[in-house]
Design brief:
Length: 111
Amino acid sequence: MNRTEFVFAIAIILFVAFCLGWFMHWLVQRFSRVSASGDMSEMDEMARALHEAEETRDQALAYLQQREAELTGQISQTEAELRAAMEGLREARAEAEEMRTVVEAQNQGTG
């Protein structure tokens, strides 16, 4: 093998190595692109799930605020009714005490 044949043989070997390297690079890019698109669909699904969870949380917060307002109103109404009932009871006790005093006075006058 003379010098020219040796140079051509080395050139062909290097060219084949270059072609194999390029082909392997293309395959790796192809497969990584497939997994990236799979990852993107997974990311889209996660983003959609996160958005739905945020909407559900917002609805739950709105419901809780509405329910809290209703319960606060009911508590205020119940407290007002309690105050009215306590006032009525106080008046009834005072009236009963007056009646008891009158009855005792009548009993002492007749007895």
